[in-house]
Structures are given as structure tokens and as C-alpha cells.
Amino acid sequence: MDVSVKNIDDLNAVLTVKISNKDYTAPYETSLKQHRKQMQLPGFRKGHIPTSIIKKKYGPSILAEEIDKILNKSIYDHISENKINILGNPIPIEDEKKHIDWKNPGDFEFAYELGIAPKFDLDLPGKYKFTMYQPKIDKDLINKQSNDFAKRYGKLVSIEVAGEKDMVLANFKELDESGQIVKEGFNHSSTVSMEFVEDKKSKKQLLGSKPKDEFKINPKLISRGDVDMAAMLGIDKERAKVYTRNVLMTVNEIKTLEPANIDVTLFDKIYGAGEVKTEQEFNQKIEEDLKKMFVADMDRVFKKEVSSTLIKKLKLKLPDEFLKKWILSSNKEAKKDQVEKEYEMYADGLKWQLIENNIIKDQKIKVEGEELLNFTMGLIGNQYAQYGMMIPEEAELKKAAQNVLSNNEEARKINDMIYDRKVMDYLKSTLKITDKLIAHADFVKKVSESM
User: Fold this and answer.
1) What CATH number is attached to the domain comprising 365?
2) Is residue 300 part of a domain?
């Protein structure tokens, strides 16, 4: 067997694999024997079918299977042994003139396109300067969070008249084209949140409504899409899509959210009994929590600035045509025009991945098994805390983490998260960074732009 690579340029190459008869004869014969043991055909006992019959009937497909195994192993062994840094996967070069006669096999030759990763030197810290944006946690932001807590732990109370942010509990009956109630039609009770009604005319109609008031109204104008409307009327989503008539809406009750008092009772519910005693302490705790909450967003904005700057300065080139072809060949649902449209974003993501890999290799960054387990336990614990639930004991938390990591895809994602965090820690300790406080609204805008 002969495997060779011919470079077309710095980013593209052709890999050729030549397989002779002696390379596949032994594994092919072994595979035939295994199939003979397992195969059943009418008129023959299991395991006693003549090899000649198996060869005639299944030989070509069995041979193709063995050749495929040899090909895959030889290709990736060669790439690994020669440390060829490829992008994507090898793409077979189809030769229309070449016809493989699987019934009368001889020597084989296969060719593949390779996309090669660019070589580059990452000069860090270098001359680049970066900004770590931080939101100003002022009195208004603390008050907003405090009021949000009060609403979250508030209670719904009945009132007489519907206002801008109240909930209207109502019954909905189906009407025919002439506006009469359909006897066998839907008859369902549900809720309309006034703050989510976007149609101005419908909102004006409902504002000031009282229990027992009736309206003939278009349900599409007081719901948020087909799924919401289906739930409101008690019908399925498919019917909601095509429903065009008005409904009879009868107001049963009006409710408003009465925020909880900002006092010790609320403090205990949020932070635990006795942890916070005064409103001043409550505001200090909110400020601390907001600072922690914004760390991930600060990192996201910082990462966006760093990645955009380094990608621009390094001017990395990729085997663009190869990558576009590879995306189309590996994703059957992808369309050529879609790939062209989204390619620049994909290419920037790949360039940043190459930069991260360079840092990981240069700094010898590793993720150990115990570290992966502890990090996963921390993630699960944070989820419990986020929903105000008691964090389980360590043994139970460990078991839950091991269960998550038993899923290879989830384990890979969490592994990538740790590497990403370690790269970020390295960048923060290495680069020239200036801290800058900005208004919360401006920070939110930057976070949105970084996604």
C-alpha cells in the first residue's frame, strides 16, 4: 500500500492511496468466512453455504466494505504520522473515467482533496491594546433589580378594571361568519396579558374592561402567534394557523400583580433566613450579585473584541473553496447560496478556533478528568441555585455530573467550555487591558452585538 500527498499550494493538497491486491486479500477472505458463519440461505444449513455462492452474491459489497476500512485507516494514519494539520475531512475526488469492477478486482487507486490549516505565529501580548467593558451598577439598576424581585415574589389580586399591565381572565366562544355562537364550537377559558397585546385598537378595546363585559374580537390580534392562540382558544396549532373569524370574549375576572413588600420576609425568601436584615444590606447583596452576573457577559464582549482584532491583524487565509465544498458534502441540508452567504461568519469562527488551538498548544493547556467532573458539578449546583432550589449533597451532585458526562456530546461541550475559560484566563493575564465603565444600556448593546 502506498499513501502520498502532493501539495497544490500552502492550503490545498491531494492525498493518493494505492491499494494492491495483497493489501486486501487476507482481510477480504477473513470477512467472507465470518459472513459464511452467520449467513442463512434457503436450502443450506447455517454456516454451511459454499464460499463460491457467498462470493458471487455478496462478494462485491463485502470487498467494498473492506476497502473502505483500509482506506480510512491508511488516510488518517498517514495524516497523524506526518502531522498534517487538516481542516474538515478529506473529500474524495471522483474520476468519471475510472470504473471499479468489484466483481473482478485488481489494484485500486483513490484520490482525496485536503484542506490544510494555515501556519502562523501568534505574537502576544504584542502591541495590541484591549478594553474590558464593565456596566455601571448604579442606584437605578439596583432599584430595578429590587423591584423585579418584589414582582417575582408578589401575588395576583383581583381588581375591577383592566389596566396596561393587568391580566384579563376570560372565556372564548367560537363564532360563525355571521357572528353567531357555534353550538358545537370551542368554548374555552384562558388569560390575556395586557402588556403583550401589541395591536393598538384591540388593546384600547380591552383597557378599562370589567367582569361580565363581552367583546367580538379577532383572537390573532390579542395573542402572540399561532401556538399562543391555540392555547388561548383550546384548539390545535394547525387549526389556529387557518382560523380567521372573530370570537366572543367574555371577561370573567381582572387580576393585577401586587409586588411583595421589600422587607425581611422578602430578604429571607431570596437569600435565606437571617442572611440579610436591612434594605441597605439587601441593596449591597444585589450589587454583589449583579457584578457576578455580568462577568460572563463582560468576558463575551472582551472575547469578541480580542477575536475580531487578532483575526484582522493576522490576516489568516483558509482553503475557502475546499471548505465550502466540504460543508456541502458533509451537510446534505446545506444549500450552495446559503453557504456562500454565511461563509464569512463560518470562516471567522474557524480562524478563532485555530488561534485558540495555537494558545492551548503553546501554553500546554490541559483539562484533566477530575477537573471536568468538578466543573460539571459546579454547573449543576449553579442551576439549582439559579432556580432557588437547595443544592444536593456532594455524593448526589457527583452522581448527577457523572450521568451528564456519560453523554459524549455533553462531555465534549463542557470540555470545550473549560478550554475556552482557560484561554480567556490566559488572555486576561497576558494582554494589555484597560477597564472602562459604561452605562448599563450601552453594555447591553455591546453584549447583543457580541452574540
Assistant:
1) 1.10.3120
2) yes
Residue 97 has pLDDT above 70, yes or no: no
Whole-angstrom CA distances from 292 to 14, 124, 196, 391, 443 are: 51, 28, 31, 19, 15
Which one, of 112, 121, 92, lies nearest residue 8 by Cα? 112
Same domain flag for 133 and 161: no
Stretch 408-424: mean pLDDT: 94
Question: Structural domain tally of the chain?
Answer: 3
Identify whether residues 290 and 439 lie together within a single domain. Answer: yes
Identify the sign of the CA torsion 291, 296, 302, 305: negative
Amino acid at 407: N
The rounded percent of the chain whose pLDDT value lies above 70 is 98
Residue carrying C-alpha cell 494505492:
18
108 forms beta bridges with 19
Supply the pLDDT for residue 143.
94
- 41 domain residue, yes or no: yes
C-alpha cell recorded at residue 183? 353550538
- The three grid cell numbers given for residue 343, joined into one nine-digit string: 461563509
Give pLDDT, residue 35. 79
Which 3 state secondary structure label does DSSP give 376?
helix
In this structure, what C-alpha cell is assigned to residue 331? 451537510
Grid coordinates given for 228: 399562543
Is residue 161 situated within a structural domain? yes
